[in-house]
């Protein structure tokens, strides 16, 4: 059974970035206003996520590492949105704990003492009182130490870090009201202010050169919206809302990974949306160059194809052509408005 559990856990925790994703999501679920992600060697040597969220009592932290202990038995919206991880709801901590050495230090807000739980390979080793700040720190050491096949399959640290960075960046961009920091091998990679603006978050994550080259698109431009913007949203396409920012065509990268797309609040991979963004630039974009973009789309759940594999981030739309049209039109009008 232990083997089966480890294999199942390996499905949830594919690589360091998947653990980071689950831990950051838990911090956000716990209503944190500050989240700090610290990784060593791309996360292969250690992952630590600290938050100032609501914390857990000693009983709650023991329950949290058991299997099937979700606080959200059925997150139907996720299922319908097809981009959640319903299949693994309530199993993330247990799964991470099954394939690593896990330490949780946590204290509920207002409590006078906290708890430290240690676990290795799925077995709780100790639970004891601990002095710690309010909130929760989860430390994942020796990831896959007991799953050699999985350990071997890990890529170079730099590659693993790229994945971790992408996850952290996605959560930072979609949660501008949370101060989110990422540290790698003792170096601070970025740190957002949590002041609530997308522009400030882009500045923190991508730097000044990129931040100053960003143009607002769609609904965010509402105060100064021209007819083209309104039409983009009201053309009877599938999108209810479209907002975000895209970069000036001179500020590009050779990789499409700087096109961040969020569908109904979830960080996804949507090839159709990325293609539509690129199409809007037309010949202004050099071959194999991609703009920076942070786009938030919202549309009815029944417009998103349910993807049965919870780990996949790729999302498909019932009316893909409609989504493409609306995205392309909105980006085109943003570029036009800026005289680009
Ligand atoms: P899920 O998030 O789907 O409930 P997890 O295994 O990720 O399942 O977490 C189990 C439970 O542990 C959560 O429901 C929550 O009650 C608790 N928990 C996990 N991480 C934190 C955290 N950072 N702060 C407070 N509670 C947490
Ligand atoms: Mg969770």
TrEMBL record:
Coiled coil start-end: none
Protein keywords: DNA damage, DNA repair
Function of the protein: This protein is involved in the repair of mismatches in DNA. It is required for dam-dependent methyl-directed DNA mismatch repair. May act as a 'molecular matchmaker', a protein that promotes the formation of a stable complex between two or more DNA-binding proteins in an ATP-dependent manner without itself being part of a final effector complex.
Family under the similarity heading: Belongs to the DNA mismatch repair MutL/HexB family.
Record's GO cellular component terms: mismatch repair complex
Name under which the protein is recorded: DNA mismatch repair protein MutL
Keyword Magnesium on entry: no
Gene: mutL
Lineage: Archaea, Methanobacteriati, Methanobacteriota, Stenosarchaea group, Halobacteria
Biological-process GO terms, alphabetical: mismatch repair
DNA mismatch repair protein S5 domain ranges (all copies): 202-336
A GO term for molecular function: ATP-dependent DNA damage sensor activity
